[in-house]
Amino acid sequence: MIRHVTVLVLSVFALAAWAQTPSPHLHPDTVIDGAKNPELIPDSTAYRVWLVMVSELPNAATQDRDRQRAHLASLGLTELDNLQLTTLLTDFKAQYVGLIARYNESAKAALAHGGQPDVNLLLQQRDDLVRMTRAAMALRISSESVSRIDARVQEHKKHIQLHTQVHTMTTGGAQ
Amino acid sequence: MKTAALLFASLLYILSPGNAQAQCTIETWVSYSVSDSVVLNAAGTDIITSVLLDGSAGMQMIATGNCPDSIITQFNNNKQYIQHWPSVQNQVGSMGGWTQGPATCAECYISYQTNQDSGPLPQGQETTFTWEGQTYCGMAGIVFFSSESILAAEIARTRSLNTGILAGTTTINGQPQKVWRVLPYCTPATSPPDWNPTTYGAPADLTYTAVYYVDSIAACVRINLTGQPWFCLSPPGASIGWPQSLNLLPVNCTHNP
């Protein structure tokens, strides 16, 4: 068993060493820089990024919880809305992390069988989660607080870059 | 396991430069959001920065010459052994730096964030905040990087003067508030201040003369170039003091042009 694992590990390293010998190439990055064009960052993306950045899991460390409080304090919400938002953010984070974990497990399983994971389904579920979280905010938080959150998310667009990048590496080559 | 190792080894042999009569291309594509955020800690003494790398990736072998199907099939069958590592740079002043996240599969979704506390920063002192995201592939090397963003960051302090003009009412932390229009009240040498609030929410039962002056602080960032505007984040209505006098002189505000 150990010998087989060793062969596999060596094979991976050997392939890595070989594969980097040919010409790797990073194609020009297609980037939307929110600092320059915040209007090009979709609301759904801005909300997702903001929700991910300010949310914490229930078992978050004290310093992470403090960081979250600092972010939420800067919104100036009522105590009740602050509490509701904190609960919504915890739910969001747990579902977001769970969604990704389940997808990654299914991706590994698909790859192990020579298959292809369905990332489009994940992206749909991810965006649905963001949409549902926004809807829950509208239901459980006052309209004034929702307006403040929206203003903050719109401002956060300046802090987001969207990258689509392709990296190619041509192997072999003797024709 | 033995079969997989043999398959992978055979793939290596077939693809090795000495044997390859074919030209195949390994293509990796990513769709990532990279984001930063800056906030003041509760004590108003430290800046806390966050950097997030979030998105999906895919990897495949494509025929760019006479790449045999057998090689493509073998590559796809062994893709499970290729790993990706997300990294983010999150450095504020001398604190933090590059951090590598856990290994994931080549087609796994990545959501990796780090948070960094600057430690206590004197008000008005500029520091740098550098952030970037990157993904490293165990086989293909760096398959994604965002360009490095270097920002200037500071904790800015400003004294404001209440104009007595009511901009509206609101509720903060359960307390009704009157929102007053304010103007900066800084010495000529420190005007305009980097942090320039235009309104201030004070408890509704206070007359405007009771909050005639407002000293407030905010976490501010800008592109690390002289002359660039500052973007500040401060709690609406947050202050560090209301000097209770009607005859104060303008003070030195944070002003880093």
Give a quick rundown of the structure.
The complex is a heterodimer of chains A (175) and B (257). With 175 residues, chain A is mainly alpha-helical.
Bulk shape of chain B: elongated
Q: Tell me how many strands of chain A there are.
A: 3
Binned strand content of chain A: 5-15%
Mass-distribution shape of chain A: globular
List low-pLDDT spans of chain A.
3-21
Regarding quaternary structure, what we see is heterodimer
Q: Please tally the helical runs of chain B, counting DSSP H or I stretches of 4 or more residues.
A: 2
What structural class should be given to the helix and strand makeup of chain A? Answer: mainly alpha
Which sequence of SSEs, written as H and E, runs from N to C of chain A?
HEEHHHHHE
Write the H/E string of chain B, N to C.
HEEHEEEEEEEEEEE
Radius of gyration of chain A: 22 Å
Distance between the termini of chain B: 63 Å
Round the mean pLDDT of chain B to the nearest integer and report it: 86
How large is the radius of gyration of chain B? Answer: 27 Å
In helices, the fraction of residues of chain A equals 55-70%
Biggest interface pair, residues each?
A: A-B, 78 and 86 residues
Helix fraction bin of chain B: under 10%
Distance between the termini of chain A: 39 Å
Low-confidence stretches of chain B: none
Q: What's the helix count of chain A?
A: 6
